[in-house]
Fold this protein.
Amino acid sequence: MADSTLSQVVGSQAMGTGLSAEPAPDVARGRFVKALRRSPKGLAGLLLVGLVLACAAAAPILAPHDPAQQVLGWRFLPPAWATGGSWEHILGGDNLGRDIFSRILVGARTSIAVAVVVVTLAATIGSLLGAVAGYAGGIVDNIIMRLADFLLAFPFLLLALMIMAILGPGFWTMVLALSIALWVNYARVVRGEALRIEQMEFVEAARSIGVPGWRIVLGHVVPNVIPSVLVLATLEVALVIIAEAALSFLGLGVQPPTPSWGKMISEGRDFLYDAPWMVLGPGLVILMTSVGINLFGDFLRDFIDPRTER
Amino acid sequence: MLSPVPSLPDQARTATATDLLSIEGLEKHYALPGRWFGQAGVMRAVDNVSFAIKPQETFGLVGESGSGKSTIGRMIARLIRPTAGRIRFDGKDWLALSGDEFRRARKRVQMVFQSPYASLDPRWRIADIVAEPLRTHLNLPAAELRDRVAGLLQAVGLDPAVADRHPHQFSGGQRQRVGIARAIALEPDLLVADEPVSALDVSVQAQILALLQDIKARRRLSMLFISHDLSVVAYLCDRVGVLYRGRLVEVATTRDLFNAPGHPYTRALLAAIPGSGQRREAPIPAGGTVSEGGCAYAGRCPHARDPCRTVVPALRPSASNALIACHRAGEI
Amino acid sequence: MSAPLLQIQDLRVEYASPRGPVQAVAGVSLTLERNRILGLVGESGCGKSTVGQALMGLIQSPGRIAGGDIRFEDKSLIGLPEREMRKLRGDRLSMIFQDPTATLNPVLTIGDQIAELFRWHRPQMRRREVQARVTALLERVGIVDADRRCRAYPHELSGGMRQRVVIACALALEPALIVADEPTTALDVTVQAQILDLLRGLQSEHGTAVILVSHDLGVIAETCDDVAVMYAGRVVESGPADEVLARPRHPYTAGLIASRPSIMAPDQVVRPIPGTVPDLARPPAGCAFHPRCRHAVATCRDAIPTLSAIREEPRHAVACPLAA
């Protein structure tokens, strides 16, 4: 048994980066499933996220109506459970007479796409720049962090607006603008963490062994920074969904009639007293998504931390 | 006799009678930040320290916190760059080595760290931690690497079956064993051990001390043993250097140092050991001001006279063959 | 004055953990008279600090006192309302912690921190009087130039000085009992010697009883009148410090002494105790030390030995069937 486990661990030496702390993929999958079964938190998170993703993927099939179709009779139609509502329009209709449920399903595609792409992009760019700043120090650190300070001086949305004013409206320019506005947070967190980890004795030990700098960053610094990045990323998903709404509301992001959750909320805001269901539906799914991602993110953070192993 | 030919096998090289490591006038200064801008002055963390370690010798560095003992160890391991001074390792200018030459030489000086918790990456498996130096320096086939790791774990008294576990599943003593396995993986000639037992429980300390002694004898290596604990130093070391505020105040064989301490600070240190049986006649003076020009200990020393406060005493051989940095070494 | 100052009877402290309850203290009985220093010695996780915390009413969730009694000045401390306990703490009972830096409030001058104690516990005292007492206290713990130093902030003092301030705080209201939990572990040897001198001096001057919690047998030998050796939540040996440390009867005490290199005999080989401290969530059956004990016999696995006096010296008690 000793031999087989050792060969497993040592076998992945081919990578040669010292990153082989993870076992072979099939073992990891088995461990993942086992850990997930034991964690109600992770399971619930995965379920919620999975549900949202499935709905987004199958939206054209699931949607009972065309999300862009405007029918006068559907205007301000209350949801099914309220008086005057009908099961044909579970969540009711909006101010232009469109079916809210269908719009949520189709809108999921935009909202999720923006959130995932922006958070991934911002986290990758930010973490990389942060790690470089923390490790290199000196002038490089100064340039990156002063740029970060400069960007941080502007409110997040204003910054995104300014960038979009330069780049022009559209889905991809919005993704770019939000990513540029958000990477700063990751850079700051990662740099701080990297500086802390740099001081740890195990990094000193690696240096005293003669491990090259890039291998220390990849093998010791990055794996120990990932949990913080993960937490930040899960928190920012909801933020991005809302930010997308604000930008789209101003006509800079997704162009009508393409629906998105955020846009639906901003449209419903004007009718909050008369038709609260216009914000209720999209509000609930945003809540559901961010809770799901947070739960799953928490589970993932625990999962990749060997200290939580029993 | 110096045999600096790098292609010679390890065993042949250390078989000389000369010093394995020698340090001359080592200094490390840190800038003290000023109240507003600029610097207020320099803090001499290590101040003109010289000593040498012979092959297979264990040299102890004792001192209290802030005495510069860890800084010296880290300068020898080249984790910190000295401000001034020379380090010669096996006849070569250790600080001038660079590139591939340094990479090869670095294998021969390895370090054991103080904290059994912070010195092992919590996300790595034991096998990978011990294999890290092997992977960095040797291109071994997987099977041989596995055997080497198993052998190293066995050598430090761990069951090779634990190789796939993570550090958090071990006690402090077991983790320290992993740290030692990592340090001896490349078969170094010099082991720099920085307070390797001070974070451990008493009964576990003894286990690690016994292990270090066993490794030292079996692998015929030299050791620089850094500690604040005189009893541990007395147990493990052949010679001892006593540091006070960055300066060496006494260097002597362990026997001489503990039987006939020469420097007033060494005496105070010995008398302070609880349970040493040496009842303290007078309470040890507290604090004291740092004298600018003179002996760093003058402010606390009951024997201090005029020259002590103005002239830095040099390490001079005493009657008993110890080196003592005290103006009044012969009289007191 | 017939009842002892402090009497702990069969104290049990339990911590809830994901793997079930952990018995940090599993039935400890101790008696402390006025004017004595009792050493609690053992390795990490043996429960020595927990006893001190229980005494101060500082056990917090997930920990709880699961049984036993603590009588201090003839009053039970178990189940005492937090209000009452708070009045007692700092006044009749006080504690010195390991890390003076963490104990002191960094934004208050040391004078104000000591004065705060008087304001809280002695509200009727006048400002002037408090100031005089603070200065006197700082002088008593060996801080020269106390008038000026009491305006210093903790970070302006050295570690040893800070610990002196902590001791001054502990002494401020002249408590009957001080619990000192590893008071010198964070300090240098020479400073440690000064602090131990100070503690001993105060005890002999004022008749304060002290419980000194330490892992260091040397510290215990030099400072304490009595000693109780703890292992895995129980006292395995107790008695006068000189007697216990010179003639240890329990294999664990003997092992602890033998595993410490002695400055007096550096040539002597240290003999480590094999193995490691047991997992308290799953303690071994019988005597908790038996898996590491060279002398263990069948009975050691079956029954938990009780602490009983040895024949030659009635004050010296051992919890080992082979030693009595």
User: Anything to note?
Assistant: The interface with chain B takes residues 43-44, 142, 158-161, 188-194, 196-197, 215-219, 221-223, 255-256, 258-264, 266, 270-274, 276-277 of chain C (CB under 8 Å).
